[in-house]
Amino acid sequence: MTFQNVNLTHAGEVATLTLTSKKGSMGPTFWPEIPRVLTKLGGARALILRGQDLFSAGLDVRASAPVIAPTLGDPEAFAAVVAEMHAAIDAFAALPIPVIAAVHGWCIGAGLELISACDIRIASADARFSLPEVKLGITADLGGLQRLPHLIGTGRAAHLALTGDPIDAQIAERWGLITELLPTPDALFDRAHALAAGLAALPPRAVEGTKRTLHAHLPHAQSLDQAVRWNAQHMTADGLAQALK
Fold first, then answer.
1. What's the rounded mean pLDDT across residues 53-61?
2. What is the second-level CATH architecture of the domain 6-200?
3. Strand, coil or helix: what is 26?
4. Does residue 171 sit in helix, strand or coil?
5. What is the distance in angstroms between the CA of the first residue and the CA of the last residue of the chain?
6. Which distant-in-sequence residues (6+ apart) come within 8 Å of 129 by Cβ?
7. Are 6 and 33 within 8 A, CB to CB?
8. Helix (H) or strand (E) holding 10
9. The whole model's pTM is what?
């Protein structure tokens, strides 16, 4: 199956999804493609998400305007349009396998909201991150305001969202938005593949249970109960014996 905005490749148990639209922009055809392409992961046990010339310039406002403009002033119609965008981003968080966002160049608006739904974010030194919606008279509504406080704290998320000002890769690492900083895009992609291969080699049920528990954002007692019940259901005697060696 050919996709207009993305390209999916496989190398062993690692899949790579590359944003191929111009500047990784996300127009009306991008959002319905994502759930479809994610059904093609097959036996992949880790996924790398990356761009081409840069990670993503965010929402393609010009292409999206004819879809969005008629719904303005009608909350129900507007919500129906945005729901498709939510479903695409949420699909990454819902995957049972880990998703690594490998960011080089600009990661703007919807691109930043997209990587906030990934499990691990790494970047090259040329990466820049921005949530500029407020400068455009918009409240970011694709999950960034909900996820970023869990990743970098409410104060830093507020700084990004209220000022709309960009931060560089060094600040992003210091804030914890990214966990590894590589010198060049080539080094970034090499590291992303090595990291993904390492994750793919781990017991898949343990990885899935860990991801589900992290993403649930449940109260402490409920989160503990979820992890315990997952282990009770999926831990095996052979696995336990292997861990004790």
1. 96
2. Alpha-Beta Complex (3.90)
3. strand
4. helix
5. 45
6. 103, 107, 108, 112, 160, 166, 167, 168, 169, 172, 177
7. yes
8. strand 6-11
9. 0.93
Per-residue tokens: 59:
């929402």
Residues 167, 68: Cα–Cα separation, whole Å: 29
Residue 21 is which amino acid?
Answer: S
| Token duo for residue 20 | 């191929």
pLDDT tier at 217, thresholds 50, 70, 90? confident
Q: Is residue 203 within 8 Å of 239, Cβ to Cβ?
A: yes
CA distances (Å), 12 to each of 1, 222, 225, in order?
A: 19, 36, 34
Place of tokens 């590359």: 18
Tens of pLDDT along 65-77?
Answer: 999 999 999 999 9
pLDDT of 207? 95
The number of beta carbons lying within 10 Å of the beta carbon of residue 95 is 18
Name the strand (E) or helix (H) holding 99. strand 99-103
